[in-house]
Specification:
Elements: H1 3-9, E1 27-33, E2 45-50, E3 56-57, E4 62-66, E5 70-74, E6 82-83, E7 87-92, H2 97-103, E8 110-113, E9 122-128, E10 135-141, E11 149-153, E12 156-160, H3 182-186, H4 188-191, H5 204-207, E13 212-217, E14 221-223, E15 228-236, E16 241-242, E17 244-250, E18 256-261, E19 265-267, E20 273-282, E21 292-301, E22 305-312, E23 315-322, E24 328-329, E25 334-336, E26 341-343, E27 349-350, E28 355-358, H6 360-363, E29 373-376, E30 382-386, H7 402-415, H8 425-429, H9 438-466
Parallel strand pairs: 7-8, 14-21
Antiparallel strand pairs: 1-2, 1-11, 2-7, 3-6, 4-5, 4-9, 9-10, 11-12, 13-15, 15-16, 15-19, 17-18, 17-20, 20-21, 22-23, 23-28, 24-27, 25-26, 25-29, 29-30
Length: 485
Amino acid sequence: MSTNTLKKYFVFIVIFLGSFRVASANLEITEVMYDPQGANTSHQWVEVYNNGSESIDLSSWFLADYDTSWHFRSISSDSTTILGSNSFAIIAKTSNLTDFKSKNPSLNGQLFKANITLGAESGKIGLSSDKKNIIGGISYSSPMDNGNSLQKIDGIWKEAVPTPGISNTDSGVNSTENTSGSTNDTTTSNTSISSSSNTSKTSIAQTGEVKITTKIISPSIVSAEIPFYVSSLTTTSKKETLISGRYVWNFGDGTSLETKSQQEIEHTYNYPGEYVLNLSYFNNYFEKIPVFTNRITIKVILADIVISSVGNGTDSFIEFENKSKYEIDISGFTIKGNSRDFIIPSGTIILPNHKLKFSSRITNFTDNDISSVMVVNKAGDVVTTYPQKELPFIKNTSNYNISDNVLNKKSNISKNPRAINLNDLAAQAGDIDNPINYKSAYTWFGLLGIIAIGVAFVLITRKKVESTPDYLEKEIRAEDMTIIE
């Protein structure tokens, strides 16, 4: 397999597994040779590093591999199982270390063994000290078969020339087949630091902290009910592009989405307004705090597009008009004629308050086609028609217009023959062309009956008061008294 092909198709996903504890964080996996050249599993190995200040007994640790569940493999050695501080160890996939050493003479560091399963194309491995928690594990998904290994360099996993038992540095990748001992020749600058098992691992403190940033790629203005696309670009301070991780999108309208890699995502906002689009990047699916978070504001507008005119005769054109103050992307819209359709090409934009005309020489429309036209967006929603038809009322929750709402209610009242318009009783009572139905008449008769009963009650009560005899009155009036003497 050529190097160019490998560079083109080489994609691996690195996932750090959680459940860290302070004591167990000192041991980490730093390099994996899972796909040596040729179909030879006798050259597979895993490099671990003790970055603590105390020695670690690897016999109390397990190297774990995963298929449908985790399998914990004991770690042993033909000599001591103690790994000193700031030291490397190579854990080989073998049961015979002597044979493995003879087949891999270039290996440095202490040599251990474990019956680990390493898939040549994909796999997941980790460390454990209790057969419960997985520590510092990785997941990979890509064949190599070029003599390179997967290495953790400055906190980022990369394909590089193997450096078993010594510091990992970005010294490039193999382009030709390795021979025995070629690793040392290629990594002379590494071995010159130290060839012993106590070589210090290159750390962030030595090379400078690697910073990660994530950029959101999205249009700033989109139209309601029209799908659009967003993507991201995650890079490091070393100008490296990260293709894997955990990407958490929040579109600000109640919609959220998670992806494993940088990819193009389609989204549609249903209502006009301004929305905050938020993207959080995590190194893996077990981190709870994002490495980097970015946000942008997207303005969503109504696609105020109409068919302003159509042609006839020799040129059956269709003319669109954008009545808004923003440019509108109509890519992928479909113009549906009577007998044929035309899909508007990608990248077609109508400028603010401008018109755009499509010739029949492009659409192949005839006079019959343009006699009745409907335009739908990529989601299948009707945008405009010709001749103009009343489209469903879209409630704009961000710019609610009271006067428009009142007019809309009045129009709904006038269209309902069973409704009584209290704003214009006289007109409705005299509407001979639209007589009130029987149920409405019953309502009127009931109302008039209640009014008549009320008037009668008032008249009877008043008459009764006027006919009351004077001697029944409780009070004596002055005009009823006469002075005799």
